[in-house]
Amino acid sequence: MINLPTKINNRDDLDCRLGIKSSLSDIASVVALSYALYCANNKSSEIIYAEEIESNDKTKLILKEEYMRYIIDNYNVDEDTLNKNPLLTSQLEALQVGLGLIFHLAKLSYVDYPTTDTKERTGGERYRKIMKFALNMKYLDLYLTAWSPELLRDELKHWLQNSPTSTSLSNGIKEILTCFSEATQFKIRNQGQEIIFQQFGIYDSFSTGNVVAKDDQEDVGPFRIFKSFVRENLHPFIALSGNEFINKDSDNLPNYKKMVDTTLNLYPKKTVLYVEVPTDSTKNVIEKESRQIIYYGAPGTGKSHKIKEILGEYEGCPEEKKVPKENIFRTTFHPDSDYSTFVGAYKPTMKKQYRYEGKVKASYYVDDDLANAKKGDPVVEKAIEYNFVPQAFLNAYIQAYKMNETDKTDKNVYLIIEEINRGNCAQIFGDLFQLLDRDESGKSEYTIKADADLRSYLEDQLGADNPGIKGGELCLPSNLYIYATMNTSDQSLFPIDSAFKRRWDWEYEPIKYKNTDWKIDICGLKYSWIDFQKEVNKRILKDTGSEDKMLGDYFVNPPAKVISYNLFRNKILFYLWNDVCKDGDADIFPPTEDFSFSRLYAEDSKLLIISMMDKLGLKPDDGDDEYEESMFDSDDTNTASIKYSINGGEAVQKTYLATELFKVYTSLYPDLSVNDIISNWRNLQGKKPKHLIEDEDGYFTYLEKSKGDRTKNEKRFEPREYKGEKVYLWKGWGDGPNDNISPFMELVNNSDWGIKIERI
Question: How buried is residue 341: exposed, middle or buried, by Cβ count under 10 Å (0-12/13-18/19+)?
């Protein structure tokens, strides 16, 4: 009979314990003693390693006698040192995080299960624990047993005494522990917000400088213990200086970083930003259902798009997943927004009176049914009346309570607030902000009194006995969801106070660099949007130190995934110039002294933008030689009438401008080699035109790659001898819109070459 596996075990989520304040120091000694106990117990899967004793009216721990003898005999460590090890003196929570959550070596719990994990939190009491070893302990053992027993004993003695050496064996242990820790999630607080990250984020941040972890509160959980790990010099790539992480092995880190990234992609782990951690450790960590979320991030990161996905407002969404339009209410905050424009107020309303076959209807709204009115009947009069006019919040509020009275399965109603930080939230919400405190069911924990006008209107709409206004009290129903967006780059006129902030869940929308098939079309050249986005964002971050002004994935929404020249110039470059480079150049635009935004609208603007792309290190898609040929190709006859002068010399045709320039340049700089000259020319103009000057290898490479008649392609160059080497100078300048000579002249004239080109 063949026994087959029956199922995949459904395992409980790890209790991440992101909020504990327990510390774990002397990490080297903890790891060493854990391994020593693993060996002392014949490498069994679990061990009860300590005994309880009474000391000064408190329960303490000491190693069991048989394990104490084994470790002393094998590693020559004194008893007092062993009994001071954090495995015996630290709280269970700290050991769970250090050995379990960070290094994944073992799982610890009390022997007298199910005693709560927080039992040791106060009073200095310590109780017996059972240690259950994980596979990582097996991996560590496989590494250590490859060394000679003598070397291993000597090194583990140092680790047990918390003084690891820098031997190959010891460095190997440090690297293994670091590899074990890469999957760990850490939490810090920054500007009142919780940020969850992995070590990979630290490595990634080293590209723009040191990483500073400044917390509003003291370090907690895995991050607190991780900092101890780094501070104790156990991490091979990261050092700690004050509160600043520093890269201490820049040579090897890039390769290691790639391997970490691959590993994390192979074993994905969901990061839950907002969780409730039950006090009973036997319960799972559960995700809190958010009824009030502010999606925040840089412009264009897809905050509004994410809300549309939740509402089913995207192309191809199945009908059953779409939220009915009557259950969606939208508003946008701005500096003039107030309570009345958000909730409602009495406002003047235009009314008309119409004549009906000699009769007059006393009061008549313009949107009333005019089916009985005769064509051409005159308006008798227009009148202004005051009525309560509801706005977005109140309309959503009423609809939510009405939906609760229906038999529909999907009763949820959504209030969407765009640009929430552009209005004075305290003024707009008023006392409504108290309603944002919700209980576990999703209803407001506290009610507020409605004013007389609001009460009267709601009683008319819902009925006096409806829970939404019963007793004149307002209370948010559980089926009313409020989602908002906030661009962190906007200079908000009114700060959002902490009392308001804490009543919302916050979800950061990072830049994902997902639109890999988008192109920027400049003069026929197709540049990758992703490459441009990444390079510009890198420079923005370096210049401003902030991600708020970086370009999000959906900063533009181009038709057919192609960002046209005008869209690129009028939206993207306008934003970069006006909002990013206003207080610092961010090293984005062409480095000419007289450059201004208006230059982007001059005759040579396309070429300036191409020059900017070259400055950013961006190249158009492969296969642009055909475009280049069309841009610079021309017959000699077409250019014969256009002439230029170099440093006041004789007039030359455009066709031979490069040849004449070469003569003048080499006379001014006779010591330069051919390679130096080619390099200088290309650096000056950002490699456009590509083939202004080529050596022999470059020339023949061009002929092989170029399309069309080889003879015609050969005629595009003027060959010359210089210092025993052949150079090939470009002749194919274009005409009209393809004329690339004007910006080239400007670049030469503004250089320090001592050369001036003039058109005659």
Answer: middle
**18 in a structural domain:** no
Residue 228 predicted with pLDDT over 70? yes
**What is residue 276's predicted lDDT score, i.e. its pLDDT?**
32
CA 464 to each of CA 268, 414, 458, 460, 472: distance values in angstroms, whole numbers, following the listed order: 52, 24, 8, 8, 8
Half-sphere exposure for 125 (CA within 13 Å, toward CB): 13
What long-range pairs does 756-759 form, CB within 8 A, spacing at least 24?
756/646, 756/647, 756/648, 757/644, 757/645, 757/646, 757/657, 757/661, 758/644, 758/645, 758/648, 759/642, 759/643, 759/644
**Statement to judge: residues 378 and 337 lie in one domain:** no
* 43 and 161 belong to one structural domain: yes
Pair (236, 328) in one structural domain: no
Beta-sheet strands, E only, within 333-396:
344-356, 359-360, 379-390
Instruction: Give the integer Cα–Cα distance in Å for 654 and 660.
Output: 10
User: What is the rounded CA–CA span in Å between residue 207 and residue 537?
Assistant: 13
CB 146 within 8 A of CB 154: no
pTM: 0.46
Residue 372 has pLDDT above 60, yes or no: no
Q: What is the mean pLDDT of the chain?
A: 80
Q: Give the pairing type, strands 643-646 and 562-563.
A: unpaired
Domains contained in the chain, number? 6
Contact 134, 35 (CB under 8 A): no
Q: How far apart are CA 692 and CA 694, in angstroms?
A: 7
Out of 481, 507, 533, a domain closes at 507
Instruction: Tell which of 181, 197, 223 closes a domain.
Output: 181
C-beta of residue 203 within 8 angstroms of C-beta of residue 260: yes
Q: Do 212 and 162 share a domain, yes or no?
A: no
Return d(Cα 428, Cα 343) in angstroms, integer: 8
Give the residue among 67, 64, 23 at the shortest CA–CA distance from 41.
67
Q: Which residues contact 503 (CB under 8 A, 6 or more apart)?
A: 292, 433, 436, 437
Residue type, 26: D
Q: Is the peptide bond before 689 cis (omega within 30 degrees of 0)?
A: yes
514 belongs to a structural domain: no
**CA 104, CA 645: separation in Å to the nearest integer?**
75
Same domain, 208 and 248: yes
Q: Exposed, middle or buried by CB within 10 Å (0-12, 13-18, 19+), for 378?
A: exposed
582 φ, ψ to 5°?
-65, -40
State how far the alpha carbon of 405 is from the alpha carbons of 223, 321, 461, 467, 536, in Å.
Answer: 48, 21, 13, 11, 53
Amino acid (1-letter code) at residue 57: D
| pLDDT at site 361 | 52
**455-483 residues labelled b (16+ CB within 10 A) or e (exposed):** bebbbebbeeebebbeebebbbbbbbbbb
Domain presence at residue 274? no
- DSSP per-residue letters across 410-473: ---EEEEEESGGGS-HHHHHGGGGGGG-B-TTSSBSS-EEPPHHHHHHHHHHH-TTSTTTGGGE
E-state strands within 636-716: 643-646, 652-653, 693-695
Question: Which residues span the domain enclosing 200?
Answer: 186-266
Please, are residues 35 and 144 in contact by the beta-carbon 8 Å criterion? yes
DSSP state at residue 743: H
Tokens standing for residue 142: 């496989």
If asked whether residues 39 and 143 sit together in one domain, one would say yes
477, pLDDT greater than 80? yes
Same domain, 334 and 453: yes
Average pLDDT over every residue of 605-625: 73
Its sign, for the CA torsion 22, 26, 28, 34, is: negative
- Based on the domain organization, do 315 and 463 belong to the same domain? yes
The edge-to-edge listing of strands for the beta sheet with 379-390 is 359-360, 344-356, 379-390
155-213 pLDDT, tens digit each: 999 999 999 999 999 999 999 999 999 988 887 776 656 677 889 888 888 877 777 66
pLDDT digits (tens, 9 = 90+) for 394-450: 999 999 999 988 877 778 999 999 998 888 888 899 888 889 888 888 899 889 999
Please indicate, yes or no, if residue 581 is contained in any of the structural domains. Answer: yes
